[in-house]
Amino acid sequence: MDDLYVAKVRSGDTEAYRYFLKKYQDMAFSLAMSILKDEFLAEEAVQDAFVKAFNALASFSERSSYKTWFYRIVLNESFLRRKKQQKELLDFHADYDEELVDESALSRKSQEEQAWLVGEALKRLPDREAVVLRLFYLEEESIKGVCEITGWTESNVKVILHRARKSMLGVINKLLKHE
Amino acid sequence: MNEEQFSKLMEHSRLKMPFSDFEERTMARIQREKEVKTASHRYRKLSWLFFVLGAVIGALATGLVTRLPGMEGDTFGLFCKLAYVLLLVAGLHYLVTKTDTSTTKP
Questions:
Q1: Percentage helix, strand, coil for chain B under 3-state DSSP, each rounded to 5
Q2: I want to staple B66 with a disulfide (CB 3.0 to 4.6 A). Which of A30, A42, A90, B77 is the partner?
Q3: What PANTHER family has UniProt attached to this entry (chain A) (predicted)?
Q4: Which of B18, B23, B30 sits opposite A39 (nearest CB)?
Q5: Is B29 on the interface with A (CB under 8 A)?
Q6: Which residues form the domain of A74?
Q7: Predicted model pTM
Q8: How far does A87 lie from chain B, in Å, by closest CA?
């Protein structure tokens, strides 16, 4: 379906680009939030990514899918913005213990509370870990797919994913304890 | 916590774009940038056309001015030709650099 709309936009139908906005804005925003941790900055990065993708659509080679290509632009844009802002985002330090996660306490929480906990935990996670978690679990990308989007090596992605999973549970555990 | 439970938990991490007008604003920006790009492309073409016209007229004028009565002389002819070449090179450099930047930065 993406290919069809790529062809439409390339033939001069600018309105057809709306399809990509509708389809990818939420996931693009989630990815940008993983890195920038700020709604306004993430929105700006996503908008810039959409505009850049539109302008570069003529050079899109179709060697990879539109999704992979676009998510790469979103990540580049977000990392660039973060570098520019030079905002000191405090990375979470791994003083956690996965075994201590109180699963029963977590399951007692409502869906909204669980969503808040997950969102809060992802905000505290280092950008790379949050990106890999979202791509792997939300987009159901394979390790290879994550590598294509991020440009990181397979072994690096595997390590980050493993560490991210542990960090995530560690932060959730901390949040549960401090409630 | 097993993989399935973790995967289920991660479902909560899907965020929605919180700005309802995001789509409209982005489309408006794309349209605006497209119009600017089209206009700059047209002006670029016109610049080249006028440059060529100017070069031809300049060459004719340089040739004619040395033939006018009272304007003869090698030094004056050389000065005119030098000025013409300098202007030509400066104009060409300006156009090439402008064309180059406008194609890479729309």
A1: 80, 0, 20
A2: B77
A3: RNA POLYMERASE ECF-TYPE SIGMA FACTO (PTHR43133), RNA POLYMERASE SIGMA FACTOR HI_1459-RELATED (PTHR43133:SF8)
A4: B18
A5: yes
A6: 2-85
A7: 0.73
A8: 22
Tell me how many domains chain A contains. 2
B104 burial class (0-12, 13-18, 19+ CB within 10 angstroms)? Answer: exposed
Helix axis angle, A66-85 to A143-150, nearest 10°: 50
Over the stretch A135-170, which tens digit does the pLDDT of each residue have? 898 887 888 888 989 889 989 999 999 888 888 888
Question: What is the tens place of the pLDDT at every residue in A5-38?
Answer: 888 888 888 899 999 999 999 999 999 998 988 8
Give the CATH number, domain containing residue A153.
1.10.10.10
Q: What is the pLDDT of residues A56-115, one digit of tens each?
A: 888 887 778 899 999 999 999 999 988 887 655 555 555 555 545 667 777 777 778 888
If you count residue pairs, one on A and one on B, with CB atoms under 8 Å apart, how many are there? Answer: 86
Does residue A115 form part of some domain? yes
At A5, list the tokens: 């709309």
Residue located via tokens 């700005």:
B19
